[in-house]
Amino acid sequence: MPSNASAAVDHVQDLAAYVSASPSSFHAVHEAARRLDAAGFVGLDEAQAWEGGSGSFYVIRDGALIAWVTPENAGPTTAFNILGAHTDSPSFKLKPKPTTGKSGWLQAGVEVYGGPLLNSWLDRELQLAGRLVMRDGTQHLTSTGPLLRFPQLAIHLDRAVNDGLTLSKQQHMNPIFGLGDPAGEDLLGLLASRVQGASVDASEIGGYDVVVADTQAPAVFGANSEFFASGRLDNLSSTHAGLAALLGHAASAPADGPIAVLAAFDHEEIGSNSRSGACGPILEDILTRISDGLGASVSQRRQALSASFCVSADAGHAVHPNYAERHDPANRPLLNGGPLLKINANQRYATDATGAAFWARLCDESGVAYQEFVSNNDIPCGSTIGPLTATRLGIRTVDVGIPLLSMHSARELCGVQDPYSLARVVEGFFATAV
């Protein structure tokens, strides 16, 4: 990849397009698959037999995607270089019997998904998006466009609101979507009518995974156009960086390099305990089938995993100018200062000395600066898919990501340069022997 400022702008504009096309995890993997198809990758069905050998492939399992490039000279002990990310973001998920309301208003019944900053979702034009599963098992993506709003109570009716806003997840986080009698409305019918390219009968919907997403377009702004604001940067910024890097790598993959893998999991924001999450078997299943296709024995597969490496990429925290005391006093990352190396003594991040040294090497070789992140000792640290992957597979893992402000807000903030810098390092990683 070129390393100039215009390339960073191009990258962030493509990130904006990717986020806009990905209001749910299912849309995110569909859009990734569309881009992979255009680049000549082959989509595989887990229920079918696979031919082994070199090439570029991907698999979708629900809201997760695993894509990989097997080089021409790969063998039974060829290592895997894995970029791990996730496709889901904190939000709200549509409940059963979702059409509700009172006092003449139509409302959607939603449940909190993950840990969103509730107040950031107030007074925004929002949409519903996700998948509908019909009784015959067929699936359809749906997105409504601007439909919903969580309306805040006017200050005239709550004079103390600026002294501290308290929101009940059950009482206050019920978005409006119209006027009328809930008994005469059908939110599922509306979702069925917004499926593109198919005629869907709402009465045939057997299940659905539908979330709330912001509809405001991503934007570049700031005194020198140095900031980028968007929903779902945690963690579509990493998924997109890995996708861009894999597409770049596929165009010039060395014949004797490692097997480059993008693992974009679902459900990280709620603990990863699912068939498409990092605690589940999806990555191990795919790596096993790749190595089987290369003729590997169980012992040879273990050799390959021992030589493999996972870069777990998830967004981290930039120092907040109004809350600097909440950060470690010696480690205060800034936007556009480079991607983060995330460190935690209690292994909430998987980084150790070996991983830190490898990340430093990758950044040096890519000409990219990086920043170290560690939490304030008085504030608990979050976690990522990194420790989960290291624990499940025994693969050496390092935790990284771009710095954000307003993490878990409906609209997060990063620097224009950082997503491109992360993608550059990851593309170098895909071709690097550990």
Largest sheet: 9 strands, mixed
How do the strands of the widest beta sheet line up side by side? 1-2-3-13-4-14-18-16-17
Order of helices and strands: HHEEEEEEEEEHEEEHEHHEEEHEHEEEH
Estimate the mean pLDDT confidence: 96
Strand content: 25-35%
Rg over alpha carbons: 22 Å
Portion of residues in helices?
A: 25-40%
What would you note in describing this structure?
There is one protein chain. The chain is of the alpha/beta class and 434 residues long. Helices cover 26% and strands 25% of the residues. The protein has helices at residues 5-20, 25-38, 187-193, 233-250, 282-293, 298-306, 353-366, 386-393, 417-430; strands at residues 42-43, 55-61, 64-70, 80-86, 91-100, 105-113, 126-134, 139-143, 176-179, 205-214, 219-221, 227-230, 259-265, 309-313, 316-317, 340-342, 371-373, 396-401, 403-404, 412-415. The strands form five sheets. The protein has a nine-stranded mixed beta sheet, with helices on both faces. Helix 1 crosses helix 9 and helix 7 packs across helix 9 (417-430). The longest helix has 18 residues, at 233-250. The two termini are 21 Å apart. The relative contact order is 0.19. The mean pLDDT is 96.
What does this entry show, briefly?
The chain is of the alpha/beta class.
Write the layout of secondary structure elements.
Blueprint lengths: L4 H16 L4 H14 L3 E2 L11 E7 L2 E7 L9 E7 L4 E10 L4 E9 L12 E9 L4 E5 L32 E4 L7 H7 L11 E10 L4 E3 L5 E4 L2 H18 L8 E7 L16 H12 L4 H9 L2 E5 L2 E2 L22 E3 L10 H14 L4 E3 L12 H8 L2 E6 L1 E2 L7 E4 L1 H14 L4
Helix pairs in contact: 1-9, 4-9, 7-9
